[in-house]
Design the sequence.
């Protein structure tokens, strides 16, 4: 493994300028979810150049792709997932430019060292993680059902972060409808839709005392009326409801919806509820797979690997309900970074960022080789997946 690590390190260095150019191009051409045509082409062009069979419009998603490399007969299937969507007004404030390039680099490194080892590498481009989450659609379509393991490593600050947990999430829009009237001249003739929204917020605030500490309910008023002298006949609130498990999320969502139903009843408004974004499952990290990845980080001399609480949500959670999955993070810098910020985006193209990216790519490639060559390890990983609570 020591020699293999050295070989992978040299291969990364040999192709470094190519990876750097792609990273900076995607950084300078940020594209929102499901509009990542430039990023998609950039990443698939690199994979084609290095001998991968690529397909655009993967899973009928225009900016998704898959790159395949099959070696020998049989063997495990290892999926390396890439993200490359940007944020509105910020650009790559979540670092998905380097995320995508690191995943592609991993596939290339792995292909170069497979030799006569049997197995299949799948580099899968998954758009729009920040919004509708293409991995959810892919999971529902069965894309990950026959994959042996899936890996993706996200940029962060400070240090390498172990794959942990993320929250299941449902995005709900509440629309209250009433009746307009002059707010001073004839208020008794109106039905105030905004009152419905305000009562919803108050009811949810009261509900929080009876929820688990790990749950999160947070929302905004996206439409509260047009003028102060008109009783609004339409008011809209958008909420995220998050929980550590899908079962508790389902229970909590129903309680939140009951808050909305009660608010509508109390104010005489009518209520409509719908999902305005894709719901995400919770991330279930495969611990045996995570330990293998961590071992391969340490093989490179990485000593600081930390835990972080998972209070966000990601569509990687849906993948983890289909096959053994890890979703750790690699550092762009040893300093603290705030996600979804301009400073985070800028850090992705600094020289220091490529150190963490290289460590992650080499560790993922080494982990894949462990899977390809150690059937007992894969058996343990699959047994854990089978028995894990989701």
Sequence:
């Amino acid at each position: 493994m020591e020699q293999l690590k050295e070989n992978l390190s040299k291969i990364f260095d040999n192709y470094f300028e190519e990876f750097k150019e792609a990273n900076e191009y995607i950084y300078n051409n940020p594209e929102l979810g499901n509009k990542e045509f430039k990023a998609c082409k950039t990443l698939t062009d690199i994979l084609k150049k290095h001998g991968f069979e690529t397909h655009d419009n993967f899973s009928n998603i225009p900016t998704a792709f898959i790159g395949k490399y099959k070696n020998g007969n049989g063997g495990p299937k290892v999926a390396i997932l890439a993200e490359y969507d940007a944020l509105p007004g910020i650009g790559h404030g979540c670092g998905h430019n380097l995320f995508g390039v690191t995943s592609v680099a991993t596939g290339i490194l792995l292909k170069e060292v497979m030799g006569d080892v049997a197995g299949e590498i799948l580099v899968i481009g998954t758009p729009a993680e920040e919004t509708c989450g293409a991995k959810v659609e892919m999971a529902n379509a069965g894309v990950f059902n026959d994959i042996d393991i899936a890996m993706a490593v996200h940029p962060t600050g400070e240090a390498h972060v172990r794959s942990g947990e993320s929250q299941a999430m449902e995005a709900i829009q509440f629309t209250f409808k009433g009746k307009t009237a002059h707010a001073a001249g004839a208020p008794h003739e109106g039905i105030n839709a905004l009152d419905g929204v305000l009562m919803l917020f108050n009811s949810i605030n009261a509900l929080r005392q009876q929820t688990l500490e790990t749950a999160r309910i947070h929302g905004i008023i996206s439409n509260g009326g047009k003028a102060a002298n008109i009783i609004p006949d339409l008011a809209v609130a958008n909420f995220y409801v998050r929980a550590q498990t899908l079962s508790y999320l389902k229970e909590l969502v129903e309680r939140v919806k009951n808050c909305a139903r009660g608010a509508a009843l109390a104010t005489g408004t009518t209520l409509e509820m719908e999902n305005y974004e894709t719901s995400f499952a919770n991330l279930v990290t495969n611990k045996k797979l995570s330990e293998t990845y961590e071992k391969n980080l340490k093989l490179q001399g990485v000593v600081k690997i930390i835990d972080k609480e998972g209070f966000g949500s990601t569509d990687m959670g849906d993948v983890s309900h289909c096959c053994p999955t890890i979703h750790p993070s690699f550092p762009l810098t040893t300093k603290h970074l705030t996600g979804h910020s301009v400073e985070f985006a800028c850090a992705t193209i600094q020289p220091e960022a490529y150190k963490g990216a290289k460590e992650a790519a080499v560790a993922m490639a080494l982990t894949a080789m462990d899977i390809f060559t150690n059937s007992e390890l894969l058996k343990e990983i699959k047994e854990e997946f089978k028995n894990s609570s989701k």
